[in-house]
Amino acid sequence: MDALAAPAGLADASDASASLAGASGALANALDASAVLTDALDTSAVFADAPDAPDSSTGAPSGHAAPALLRPVLTELRLSAFASHRRAAFSFGPVTLLAGASGSGKSQVLGAYEALAALGSGATLEEVFPEPSALVPERAVPDADRRRGFRIGCTVDGPVGPVRLDLAVQAEPELRVVGERLSVGGEVLLSTALRDPGRRSVQAAWLTGGAVGVTRAPLPDDRLGTALLPLRVAGATAGQRRVLAAAEQAVVALRSVFACDPRPDRMRAPVPPGEGRLLGDCANLADVLRRTRHECGTRHALLARAARTGCAGEVAGLDVRAPAGGPVTALLDRGPGLPATELGRLGAGELRFLALALVLLTGPGVLAVEPATELPSARQALTVLADGLDRDLDRRQGDELLRLALMACGRGHVRLVAAVGEECAGAARRIPGVSVVDLTP
């Protein structure tokens, strides 16, 4: 079936069918090989379905486990046309490692995931894509109006079932959304299309049901429409409630993402006391350890136990020095009669290990992330994105991080998607429960 054909679920209402067909037609006209997203290699429909089998760029995940259906989680990322990727689909389990040679696009996969997460949290395209032209496939040729762009999408599994979200973005000459589609089981629940390039809006149509069939309204062309639906749809009909349930499932999964890249050069100096929520670069690690030491005794003890493996020398515990109103300094307790070691004296690998272990063992309560408030934390799963998970780590530290990841992710409230080098990937392939996705240039 054509990716833009009207689904059976909307064909019964003539108005609904006409509306969505019109939106799809406009979208196809705007985005096919002769228009906005002209691609010398791809003249298929704008939202091309993911390939049935992984191509050479996706690889096949090993040890992929079934998602925790009670918690919305992103189980597939589609890069139909994004940077160096074309028609690529990546499946994610609770612990997923991206492996491949330099230049294979591991960082681009994580970047696309992080971008969708930011859009799901309400960020604008300009905030998410500061250099959009760099994300246009190299061999994509502009149309007569010099327009080019990219396409990304994902599948979010959860109580509603698999929810597909696909997005087409014009990158040149100006950044804007030109099409979006939200669907469940082949039924299109939301479809947007650029109808009038002179206006800063897209025409949206979402399922209403009943006598109306479909509601049509303009939406901003600089934001993800799915994230706006809870503010626009009342939920008065069964159709509207299906739309809301799918949109909220997608948004909950996308908002529950923490991109983490510990920077040892920023973690060595004492830090001022704050609210104790870890930043993405982990520069305030000492302040977070101060908080976990007092509020999360069990997890702090687990982190101290992990430090015995990840840090050189004797480690009796993790401590902090925090004079009243003064800067906070984190310390390794070396045991009775021995002076403590300030974290600033540790190696880069030791600092990265401690920060990543803290992220895996704690959760959103002590991370600088804003999960959805519509659901209790027990019904949400935090996904940690880590580019270069094993950077600066030795084999012992890498193995311990994988052990911690399996322990934390096994409970279902945390997931990990990380890019790693070949040594770490080779070790992970032998560990049950870890999915390794090989990217081949």
- Name the structural class: alpha+beta
What quaternary form is this? single chain
**Radius of gyration, in angstroms, nearest whole number:** 23 Å
Number of domains: 2
Residue-averaged pLDDT, rounded? 85
Number of helices: 12
Low-confidence residue ranges: 1-68
Q: End-to-end span in angstroms?
A: 30 Å
Got a strand count?
16
Biggest β-sheet description: 8 strands, antiparallel
In helices, the fraction of residues equals 25-40%
**What is the percentage of strand-forming residues?**
15-25%
User: How would you write the strand order of the largest sheet?
Assistant: 2-1-4-5-6-7-8-9
Large-scale geometry? elongated
- Give me the strand/helix succession: HHEEEHHEEEEEEHHEHHHEEEHEHEHE
Describe this structure in words.
With 441 residues, this protein is α+β, with helices and mostly antiparallel strands. It has 2 domains: 8-256, no CATH class; 266-366, no CATH class. The chain has 12 helices and 16 strands. The protein has helices spanning 8-11, 14-31, 106-120, 125-128, 225-232, 238-255, 264-267, 285-295, 297-310, 348-361, 395-409, 422-428; strands at 73-82, 85-91, 95-100, 148-157, 163-172, 176-184, 187-193, 201-209, 213-220, 257-259, 317-321, 329-333, 341-342, 382-387, 414-419, 435-439. The strands form 3 sheets. Strands 2-1-4-5-6-7-8-9 form an 8-stranded antiparallel beta sheet, with helices on both faces. A 5-stranded parallel beta sheet has the order 10-14-15-3-16, sandwiched between helices. Strands 11-12-13 form a 3-stranded antiparallel beta sheet. β7 and β8 form a beta hairpin. α8 (285-295) packs across α9 (297-310) and α11 packs across α12. The longest helix has 18 residues, at 14-31. The radius of gyration is 23 Å and the shape is elongated. The chain starts with 7 loop residues before the first helix and ends with a strand.
